[in-house]
Design a protein that fits this description.
- Pfam families: Hexapep, LpxD.
- It is an enzyme of class 2 (transferase).
- Homotrimer.
- With about 350 residues, this protein is of the alpha/beta class.
- The chain has three domains: about 90 residues, MurE/MurF, N-terminal domain (Udp-n-acetylmuramoylalanyl-d-glutamate--2,6- Diaminopimelate Ligase, Chain: A, domain 1); about 200 residues, Hexapeptide repeat proteins (UDP N-Acetylglucosamine Acyltransferase, domain 1), CATH 2.160.10.10; about 30 residues.
- The chain has four helices and 38 strands.
- The strands form six sheets. It has a ten-stranded parallel sheet, with no helix packed on it. Strands 10-13-16-19-24-27-30-33-36-38 form a ten-stranded parallel sheet, with no helix packed on it.
Length: about 350
């Protein structure tokens, strides 16, 4: 069990402690369930009425809520960020691999850095470079000439195709595929002619990629994921997509080929982005948004029909089908009105 004193918590979070510096905590819990040995936090002021009854050993709050607490208090600029830092410090998640398994297959010319761990049945092909402290989980495949930067971790059964480059301090969850062929074909009289995908995938530093996500290699140029990007589970990133610094994309999203997404964008789950478009920096697209054209200005964008009862939805659908007819009738009425005005 990992434990921290409140003095250590103050150092980790950069907060100001009011209370017992030597008290010890070992876990993070929500206010309603927290007890002795727990850290709790308040990130939404509408729940501040519950602070006085919280039984946590210490509560992380903003300065404005300090006097509402009855236990030890750690005043921090952003309690949610402080929660993330403390949760990291108390994290007991096991490593994807420890040491190098006897059943791992490693090419003779592969470059393996210091303190690298490679799990059972992993395959490391010719020309691969693994930086210091890289962890490769069981059953992973690292294709020819791929490069993985120091401190990057891959969970089980991740497939990294040839020539892919992954930066430092990245995390790739299980069953993700990076560098598979993009969906490129020409049609000759009804027959599909495959276009070899000659580019690669270049991933920056501190990128996290969820489970069962696919990132295709570029057709001619590379697919690029810049630093500090976070991608959720079960996503499709097509060939030649470019995702800018600090962007976050939630699960189930599909990004079609040659789309460019700016810096610090937030894209909700199950969104669909058309190919060959550009998204400006700082754009937020809410869940299930369908983006058919480029977005040139920062802002929040939404589409889709919110859930209705089946009866309401049928009425809405019927009215949508009549829009063209209603539009034509409206144009006719406008023309008749203009003719009467002219008379």
């Amino acid at each position: 069990m990992s434990t921290l004193t409140l003095a250590e918590l103050a150092t980790i979070t950069g907060g100001e402690l009011y209370g017992d510096r030597d008290a010890v905590v070992s876990s993070v819990s929500p206010m309603e369930r927290a007890g002795e040995g727990d850290v709790s936090f308040l990130s939404n002021s509408k729940y501040s009425q519950y602070l006085a009854d919280c039984k946590a050993t210490v509560i992380m709050v903003k300065a404005s809520e300090r006097d509402l607490c009855s236990s030890n208090v750690l005043v921090v600029p952003d309690p949610y960020v402080a929660f993330a830092r403390v949760a990291q410090a108390l994290d007991l998640t096991p490593s994807p691999a420890v040491d190098i398994a006897k059943t791992a297959v490693i090419a003779d010319d592969a470059i393996v850095g210091n303190n690298v761990s490679i799990g059972a049945n992993a395959v490391i092909e010719s020309g691969v470079e693994l930086g210091d402290d890289v962890v490769i989980g069981a059953g992973c495949f690292i294709g020819k000439n791929a490069k993985i930067g120091q401190h990057t971790k891959l969970w089980s059964n991740v497939s990294i195709y040839h020539n892919v480059v992954i930066g430092e301090h990245c995390l790739v969850q299980a069953n993700t595929v990076i560098g598979s062929d993009g969906f490129g074909y020409a049609n000759e009289k009804g027959e599909w002619v495959k276009i070899p995908q000659l580019g690669s995938v270049i991933i920056g530093n501190r990128v996290e990629i969820g489970a069962c996500t696919t990132i295709d290699r570029g057709a001619l140029d590379d697919t690029i994921i810049e630093d500090n990007v976070i991608l959720d589970n079960q996503m499709q990133i097509a060939h030649n997509v470019h995702i800018g610094y600090g962007t976050a994309i939630a699960g189930g999203t599909i990004v079609a080929g040659s789309t460019s997404i700016g810096k610090y964008c937030i894209i909700g789950g199950a969104a669909v982005l058309n190919g060959h478009i550009s998204i400006a920096d700082g754009v937020t697209i809410t869940g299930m948004g369908m983006v058919m054209r480029s977005i040139e200005e920062k802002g929040v964008y939404s589409s889709g029909i919110p859930l209705q009862t089946n009866k309401e939805w049928r009425k809405t659908a019927a009215r949508v089908h009549r829009i063209d007819d209603l539009f034509k009738r409206l144009r006719t009425l406008e023309k008749q009105s203009e003719q009467k005005t002219d008379v």
